[in-house]
Specification:
By secondary structure, the chain is mainly alpha-helical. It has four helices and no strands.
């Protein structure tokens, strides 16, 4: 099956099936990261998180550990 054929099948999958496909693709991509530095591997994920507070970078300790927000 070609990549294009696989892509054409994606809209027919359930949400659970799409999740499984995503995890499998991520695992395959992770295996292909050999030889990259940690920073190169992490940069591939930069900007992909959705639904986070706009001040998450500045106040991550607040959101993760409950410490007071910076500048508050």
């Amino acid at each position: 099956m070609s990549a294009q054929e696989i892509i054409e099948q994606l809209p027919r999958l359930t949400a659970a099936e799409l999740q499984r496909v995503r995890l499998e693709v991520e695992e395959l991509a992770h295996r292909g990261q050999a030889g990259k530095t940690l920073s190169e591997a992490l940069l591939e994920f930069a900007g992909v998180a959705e639904g986070l507070p706009t001040d998450m970078a500045e106040n991550h300790d607040h959101y993760l550990h409950g410490v007071p927000k910076s500048g508050a």
